Amino acid sequence: MTVQAYKASRKYETFSYLPPMTPEQVRRQIGYALSQGWNPAVEHTERENAMSNFWYMWKLPLFGEQSVDVVLAEIEACHREFPDQMVRFLAYDNYVQSQGAAFVVYR
Description:
single chain; alpha+beta
């Protein structure tokens, strides 16, 4: 029986214990959030502040946005503006007034 050693690394948000997502997997996760009627948003922060609850919001949440391509374009624009910072996608659920999903796209 082999035991795998746990790699000591910081974990950020949903999916952080899995291998990095491919662009198609990111697209599908965003598509799922939009299909639930959740409002997408993009946030960024410096690596040393990534464990903080407070990240910088990139623009305002994209209320009512239905296009995955528009959301991906905003994520890319944020990453271009802040190439050395972490960028995450969030989806807010209006019904339960909380986050429906959150994951880091660029580490």
